[in-house]
Structure formats: C-alpha cells, structure tokens
Amino acid sequence: MERRIISAGFVQDALAALTRRGLDPAPALAAAGIASGNERVSNLQYGRMWLAITAMIEDEFFGLAARPMRPGSFNLLCQAVLHARTLEHALRRALSFLRVVLDDPAGELLQKDGLAEIVLTDRDRPRLAFAYRAYWLILMGVMCWLVGRRIPLMRVDFACAAPENRSDYHQFFGAPVHFDQPRSRLVFAAHYLSLTPIRSEKALQGFLRAAPANILIRYRHDQGLSARLRARLRATPPEDWPTLDRLAADLRLSPATLRRRLRAEGQSLSAIRDEIRQAQARIMLAEGRLKVAEIAARLGYAEPSAFHRAFLKWTGTSPAAYRTDKQG
C-alpha cells in the first residue's frame, strides 16, 4: 500500500491553480485516484494530479510565476544539467534556465562562510509560499537525483507570510523554516557544491518517466532509514555514537544491508554524522561558551586537530575564524 506522505494542505495548494481560473478540480482528482482534496495522498497520487493540472492549464509551475512553465520545460531542465561537471555547475545552469522560463521569481547562488544560499527575488510583492516551495522542490529534487543523494538543508526562509494552520511547511524541509523574511532563500553546506553528477542519459529517461512523483519522495527529509538513524544520533552525545555494526544489529540488519539501504536513500552513515556534527559545531562556536578543544571533545573527536580539519573541510574556514566572524 502506498504511504500517504503528502498533506491535504499541499493538495489544496495545487488545486488552487485550477479554482483560480474557474476550472473544476474534479478531473484532476479523478486522474490521480484522489477522492477529495481534503485527504493525505501518496507521492504517486500527487504526481499524477500535478501532471493532470499541468495538462489543464499548460503550466508545470501551477500558474505561480510571471510566465508559465510550459509542458516539457522540466524535461529540458533535466537535459540542461545532465552533463554538468559539479553540483555547483548544475545549479547555476538550472537557475539560469528557470530564470529564462519563469522570468520571476529569479534564483541566484551565493556562497559565504562555508554556506551555499539559493536566493529568490521578486520584482513585485512576495508570492504565495506554495510558489517558493514548488521552486525548491523542482530545483532540489533534480539536483538530489543528479548527484544520487539528498542535500540536507540548514535553513529555509520565505519572504511571504506564513500560511495559516500549516505546520506541514515546517515538517517538509527538515530544517528551520522562517516566514516574513527579507528574502526567500534556502541554505546548505557549501561543500556539497563539489559533488559530481553520476547520472547517464539512460538514467534520465527512467527519471523522467517517474517524474514528478519521484522528486516528491527523493527530496523529503523525513523518509526511511536515514531519518531514523538521524533521530537516534541527534538524541545521543557524539562521543557515545554507536558503530555501524551496532546500529545494524539494533535494526536487525546486516551491516551490508544497512549500507545498501542508506545508499538507496542517497545517504551514508558518515555523511549523516558529519551533517549533525557540523550543525552542532556552528551553534557551539557561535555561542562562544566553550573552548574549541572542548567543542571537539563534545563532538566525539579524539584530538582538536581532527575537528579543525573537519570544520575546515565543511566550511572553508577554521573554527576560531568562524567564531570571530560570528561574534563580530
């Protein structure tokens, strides 16, 4: 049975593309096998509904940009990034492509202090939160597929007001979400920009046949085994983190099976550990209460020098320099 992971709120957001035009949403719901717009749905159902809405309004972006994203644009976007040298190269190509297609909002990739930011700007007033979510979903869904792993986010900002009674926005991204911000942006560690795309022309054909349902599940933070491991590690001091063999035993899996299942989710245990350590390191350095050596010990490093090398790799700067910058 398909897991119903998409909230009713996101279903209603998508259907609004039809009701704003005076169109009956019933055909789109029927095409997706959805009884009503007030229920949670699976990613496959949502994907079918998205395709049905696209066919009805001839816009893959739900009519939320300055210009329509004509059917076939998503296909061309994937073609444009397929042979990029790195994730950074792919992102810059994708942002340029979407700027030409949508006109507004327009995205820009910025880097500072070991962080990568994708910033969206609007010429006029801010758009609906669903417009920004659709942009992130399309862009990052393709990027995660291209490099074969989820890119963990550190912060998501919306320039618009928060939709009422919609906690699903906070749950979807797996990172702190803030509304009424000066600009819309998402933030992740800049070292991911050096990842190498791994997909072929043949793989792209399979990806496109399953789109857009596949980007909904690939991009979600709270999916599968990696989410369970992430939650366990966050609840445990890093110096007490269990080994992969111990985790596998606790899950009643072989170590090889655990590695394979994490790889299928675009993850590895070392990547999850680094993600958590980096987030905790940034917080402790910014607070300024602990010495760098004490932070290293709390994060499970036997020597401060090992933490120094890891932090330099993550951010491009030393722990001491990062602290100085954050404390002004």
From TrEMBL:
Residue stretches in coiled coil: 269-296
The name this protein goes by in its record: AraC family transcriptional regulator
PANTHER family: HTH-TYPE TRANSCRIPTIONAL REGULATOR GADX (PTHR47894), HTH-TYPE TRANSCRIPTIONAL REGULATOR VQSM (PTHR47894:SF1)
Keywords: Coiled coil, DNA-binding, Membrane, Transcription, Transcription regulation, Transmembrane, Transmembrane helix
GO molecular function, one term: transcription cis-regulatory region binding
Ranges where the HTH araC/xylS-type domain occurs: 227-325
GO cellular component: cytosol
One Pfam family from the record: HTH_18
Transmembrane portions of the chain: 130-148
